[in-house]
Write a structure and sequence with these properties.
Length: 82
């Protein structure tokens, strides 16, 4: 399975080391949680996934019906190690 997201690279902070850049997501699509092997993911990976999914739900849910929101809530549910 392959997942792709559109992102834009934009200027972030600038300090004594120079100009830093950051990515901003342009697409918000949940990743297939059931297809993930959490045993090979770091705690940071899991945290980033949960943050991304929270953003997906926040951005997309206002445009959905109640039934669609329920589906999205399940698709973006928080994941934890067993």
């Amino acid at each position: 399975s392959r997942t792709e997201n559109l992102v834009v690279c934009k200027k972030a902070e600038k300090n004594e080391y120079g100009q830093f850049m950051e990515f901003e997501y342009l697409t918000f699509v949940p990743l297939d949680i059931d297809g993930l092997d959490l045993s090979v993911m770091t705690d940071r990976d899991i945290c980033l996934l949960n943050e991304y999914h929270a953003n997906v739900y926040e951005k997309i849910s206002p445009y959905l019906t109640e039934e669609e929101k329920a589906w999205l809530a399940n698709a973006t549910r928080e994941v934890k190690r067993a």
